[in-house]
Amino acid sequence: MIKLKSKLPLVGDTIFSEMSTLAHHLNAINLGQGFPDYQPDSDLLNAVCQAIQQGPNQYAPMTGVPALRQAIRDKVIAHQGHPYDADTDITVTSGATEALTSSILALVHAGDEVILIDPSYDLYAPVVTLAGGTSVRVAMNPPTQDKPRFSLDWNAIAHAVTSRTRLLILNFPHNPSGLTLREEDLDALEQIAARHDFLIMSDEAYEHIVFDGNSHLSPTSRPALAARCILVSSFAKTFHATAWKIGYCCAPGPISQEIRKVHQFAVYSVNTPIQAGIAAYLKQTQAIQGLSAFYQRKRDRLVQGLNASRLRPLHSEGTFFLLVDTSALGEGLEKELAIRLAQEAGVATIPVSAFYEDPASPRANHQLLRLCFAKQDATLDTAIERLVNV
What we know:
Oligomer: single chain
Strand order of the largest sheet: 2-8-7-6-5-3-4
Mean pLDDT: 96
Number of strands: 13
């Protein structure tokens, strides 16, 4: 019998797989895992189908189809103002997941420290471990009765930076809290960065889903931060096509060069006709401009419905997620409550505690669950009806 030594001995199935499997077994409505239950825009489907029919259907360039890299450059300039070079600074990846993974593996070395802001997306810490680094956790301030929203603790972040800090990972609009960055956040980040030598990874998968008339604010909108930043985003999230796994990362040439060294051996290149289809679609549509309003209607529908329940919705500033306070349902671990809701109400959710280092610890359990509202109205209405009766 061959003895195996796991590189990730503490890692099992993710909470997203676990709750989705439970939803399937119970025939529950899945408001847990973040994927839509509706089709992408028909114009996008037609553009991809046309690219499949007409070609190319062979390997794309390792860095991505040139037309798509140029479209990404144009999009970033329009929304954030930073002029990346389409040839040297932009890489098309197999989803944001691969962009994040390849970047961390390329840039983090043995003994390096990586600052994660909890609650943090569950991909970051395992990949830091694979790279030989150490995750340093800094918790957000959790919601309170007086201030019912998460908030960043920039003093704690500043104190966490050491001479070994290699990377700070940001994720805004934030999964799971829905928090967005403000100018004062970038002011604080610039002050910290001016005193220390570290890189910033900005996971912006939900950049085009920001509500109430506000706009996404990226660290790349500040030249001093853009010079040390790796911007990661996802067309799969933006265009309701999570199975396509098309993402990208933008970074200054020398940083991109290191990321591409890993990317080329991880996947080499990404689905060619889908890249070509997205590039063509971006030229002919204003779909991105309407995305926030599309999701805000769904957010408001879910909030309005849940106001009649014992779950208290927290304000979501962006993403397609909504947090709910479950205090009225009693005490206990968030995961236990999520399982209970799936069993008794037929609605699957995600415990926010899953986004912390130790999901069972008191500091990870604030009686909060995450609900995904990227669903058809009929799906949301049925889920609301079930949750109102809990």
